[in-house]
From TrEMBL:
Family the entry assigns: Belongs to the folylpolyglutamate synthase family.
Species of origin: Penicillium angulare
Keyword Membrane assigned: no
Coiled-coil residue spans: none
Enzyme's top EC category: ligase
Protein name: tetrahydrofolate synthase
Amino acid sequence: MSSASAFDLVKGFRRTFPAESAATPVSSCFPRAPNASPLKGRAPVEGMKDWLLKIGHHPVDIDNLNVIHVAGTKGKGSTCAYVDSFLREHAKRNGIERKIGLYTSPSLWPQNRIRIDSNPLPENVFARSLNEVIKGLSLDGDKSSGSSSPSPGFLQMMALISFHTFIQEGVDVVICEAHHGGQFDATNFVDRPAITAITKIGMDHVDNLGGSIKNIAWHKSGIFKPGVMALTVSQALEAEQEIRCRAEEKNVPILFIQDVKSALLEFVDSNTFESIPLESRENVALAAQIAHKFLQDKGSSLNELDVKAGVNNCRWPGRFDIVNSKGSTWYLDGAHNETSMEVVARWYKRVTEANSPRILIFAHFSHQRTRDWIKILETLGNSLNWQIQHVIFVQEIEYDTHFSTTKERLDEYAQLWQDNSPSCSIHKTTTVAEGIEKAREFGTQTNILVTGSLYLVEAALKIVSV
């Protein structure tokens, strides 16, 4: 199987979403969650253990991977990347052979979601693992045979491929980012993780997780396992109360990192602390504490050298990313909810000159039932004080038109921005490449913010980094 056909094949497991105006019935078989709205349809975690067994992996095989499981709304991927970096630097400093698996999402290119020792999974290994999972689940036969057994969806398949690969490749520790939610998330099949953690919680996936911070906190803390250490950062009061309640219910020892500076000064001096970008400090602090607690359980500890080298060497594309290209500076961050938009706007204003030309490229592809995309854009505009000279709205990702929106939605974006900033020039393009070309027409020495969808950011990075 070629890599191209493997990528196309795994993308074929995507579910088709109903039209935005259509109501999606709530499945009567879906677990009812106290303090949280029920999700729609089947619980994503349903079937995962059975599928793993079919491809030869028992729960003890998963537990032996030393899984660090991370949920949250903002900063999950970055936190996972920092944990990976800290553990790699610790192993290097101590001459330890430690193979680290990292599973994150999202990415336009499926193999990029699965990394070993920080490297995206080689295309031939991805194709081999996909083929083995498909054969193990007997999904390579006649699809018209009428079998009533459910098959995995895309995210379920990606989680199966990743853990199958980690076991086959002899990985020593796995850092796993939950997709969304936690309690019913497709990654929540690990009975005995090494440690669990929750990053900052905000309003996101409200149709599935519920319409309040308390609802969402209930779901996120569903990754807690009895007796397993959990860590989190300072949260809104309702979220903190719910997290503490669930930790008590599950007999989970929990550490709240309330003071980011104090948490980091356990490992680094004040000069190093000040050198860490403001927007990254909370994620770095959480990641350092996760890595430290993990290593303590193994009879070791994290130190200043590990943290300094880990911060310096951590590369997480599309998160507070700055790229100089053809005379302009590109600021790229996949901020796809209201909480993230406030942070990316604050970052952009802090690192750019106020009197230099500012350009925004924005796209969002989530179903309206999942995210209030108008509210997200409005949050961005308000956070930027609408001080943008040119705005470009993108309709689709040319690499994968599964990620697209309607012209009507782009019209709504444009109208919202025009109403709040009448002097701004507003443009709509079909593809990311067209949006980038339009931004370049406004000359050099410009500061171009690319945000909204992580898929938009990844596609833009592929173009401007050349």
